[in-house]
Amino acid sequence: MADYSFGYGGIGSGLDISSIVSQLVAADRAPQNARLNTLESTTKFKLSGLGSVASAFDALKTALDGLQKVDALGARTVGSTMLSLASGSTANATADAVLTPTVGRNTPVGSYQVEVLSLATAHKLLGAGTEVGSKFSAGTLRVAIGEESVDVAIKADATLADIRSAINDAAGKHGVQAALLTSDAGHHLSLGSAKTGAANGITIEMVEGDSDLQSLVQGLAQQSPAADAKVVIDGLLTTAASNTIKDAVPGMTLVLKQAGTSRVDVSADPAGSRAAVDGFVKAYNAALKAIGTATTYNAETKTPSSLTGDAQMRGAASQLRNVMNDLLGGLAAQGLDAKTLGLQTQGFPNPDGSLVLDSTKFNEAMANNSAKVIAAFTGETGLAAKLNDVVKRYVGTDGALTLRTKGLNDQLKDVAKQREALDVRMDAAAKRYRTQFVALDSLMAQMTSTSSALAQQLSALSAQTSNR
C-alpha cells in the first residue's frame, strides 16, 4: 500500500492528517481491491486445474502419436547361434563368435542362415627396413586413397620420421594413417587406410625426387588387402565395405566378427509391443483422472475443485468415453473383443470409463494374430489415429485447452492493469483528501487565532468594567 503521509500533522487543528488520509484511501480501495483479489485468485485456481488437465492431454497425445506409428507393435527379439559347416549342427548355443545381430521394429520374423565368407579389411602397406638416421633428398610423393589423392612435399635431408609426419599432415584428413615402426632391420614406413573396403585402397608414387625416394616407394609391400566383407544370407550374396551389414534383411544389422556360419532367429516380442498399448492405457486413464480431480466436489466439506461444474471439462470427458466406447465396439466387431484382446473399460465396482488391459490375453492375441491387432491399433485408420483426432482438438496451438489457458492468462494481465489504474485513482484521491484537510487545518488555525483575539478583547473589557 502507498504511503500517504506528508511529514506533519494539523498545526491549526491538531488532527493527524496523514493517518486520516491513509484510512480514507484504504476505505475507498477496500471493495475494489477485494474484487480484484477474488478475480485473481479464482483465475489462478482455474489455471491450476486447467494446467493439470492440459498436461494429461498432452501426455495422451504423445502416447497416441507413438501408438499410431505403423511399427508401434512390431517389437522383435533376436538371437544367433554359430553352426558347424560340416553338419549344420549347433556349435555353440550360448555365444556366437561369427556375428552379433540386432533388429528393429517390423523386421520380418523367421530364421536366417548367415555365412560370413570373409571380413572387410583395411589396406595396409609396410616398407623395407631403413637404417636409423637415414636422410632423403627433396621431392614430391603422391598418395591416393580410393579416388582421392594428395601431393606430399618432402624437404631435403628429411628423415623417415619427417616423411611419416608429412604424409599424415597432408593425407591424414583423407583417411591415410602413416606410422614409423622399428625392427632389427631398422625403421619401417607403414601406411594404412582408416576405412575398410575394396574402394579404399592406398597407392603411393614418386612424382619428383631422386632414387632414394623411389626406392622407399618401391619397397612398400602389401600387408593387408583392401577387401569388402562378403556374406551369404539364405543363399543370397551381399558385399559391403565395412563389417556392419545393414538392411540386407529389413531392419536387421549384422556386426561381423569372423568367417563362419550362424543361424539368426527373429521372433515377435509381444511384451515389447504391449508397452505401446500399456502407455496409451495409462495416459488415457490419467486424462480422465485429471478431469475428475479438477471437477470433483467434496460434499463433506462443501468444497468445490478448481473446475467443478465446468462445461468444457464435462464435454471433454464425455467425448473421450464416447469415442473410446465406439472404438471398442469396432474392435469387437473385428473379433477383437475383451475376451480376445484383453482391452476393456473398468467395470464393477468402479465403472468410471477408465481402461483395463489384460497383458496375458493381449500377448496371446499378438502371438495368434499380430497382423490383425497391429492393423486395428496403428496407421491412419487405427484406434490410435481416431482417438488422436479428438485429443488434438484440445491441445496444440489452436486447441481448446490452449486457447482457454491463454484467455485466463489474459485475465490475469488485465487484473494487473486494473491494479495499476486503481493505484493511480487512489493517489489522486489521497491528494484530494490532503488538499481538503490542509485547507480545513488552515481555516481552523484562523478561527483559533480569531477566538484568541476576541478572548483577549473581552478580558480587557472586563478588566475596565471592574476598575470603574
Automatic annotation (TrEMBL):
<dbReference type="InterPro" id="IPR040026">
    <property type="entry name" value="FliD"/>
</dbReference>
<protein>
    <recommendedName>
        <fullName>Flagellar hook-associated protein 2</fullName>
    </recommendedName>
</protein>
<keyword id="KW-0969">Cilium</keyword>
<dbReference type="Pfam" id="PF02465">
    <property type="entry name" value="FliD_N"/>
</dbReference>
<dbReference type="GO" id="GO:0009424">
    <property type="term" value="C:bacterial-type flagellum hook"/>
</dbReference>
<dbReference type="InterPro" id="IPR010810">
    <property type="entry name" value="Flagellin_hook_IN_motif"/>
</dbReference>
<dbReference type="GO" id="GO:0005576">
    <property type="term" value="C:extracellular region"/>
</dbReference>
<comment type="similarity">
    <text>Belongs to the FliD family.</text>
</comment>
<dbReference type="InterPro" id="IPR003481">
    <property type="entry name" value="FliD_N"/>
</dbReference>
<dbReference type="GO" id="GO:0071973">
    <property type="term" value="P:bacterial-type flagellum-dependent cell motility"/>
</dbReference>
<feature type="domain" description="Flagellar hook-associated protein 2 N-terminal">
    <location>
        <begin position="13"/>
        <end position="123"/>
    </location>
</feature>
<dbReference type="GO" id="GO:0007155">
    <property type="term" value="P:cell adhesion"/>
</dbReference>
<keyword id="KW-0964">Secreted</keyword>
<comment type="subunit">
    <text>Homopentamer.</text>
</comment>
<dbReference type="Pfam" id="PF07196">
    <property type="entry name" value="Flagellin_IN"/>
</dbReference>
<feature type="domain" description="Flagellar hook-associated protein 2 C-terminal">
    <location>
        <begin position="226"/>
        <end position="448"/>
    </location>
</feature>
<keyword id="KW-0966">Cell projection</keyword>
<keyword id="KW-0282">Flagellum</keyword>
<dbReference type="Pfam" id="PF07195">
    <property type="entry name" value="FliD_C"/>
</dbReference>
<dbReference type="GO" id="GO:0009421">
    <property type="term" value="C:bacterial-type flagellum filament cap"/>
</dbReference>
<comment type="function">
    <text>Required for morphogenesis and for the elongation of the flagellar filament by facilitating polymerization of the flagellin monomers at the tip of growing filament. Forms a capping structure, which prevents flagellin subunits (transported through the central channel of the flagellum) from leaking out without polymerization at the distal end.</text>
</comment>
<dbReference type="InterPro" id="IPR010809">
    <property type="entry name" value="FliD_C"/>
</dbReference>
<keyword id="KW-0975">Bacterial flagellum</keyword>
<keyword id="KW-0175">Coiled coil</keyword>
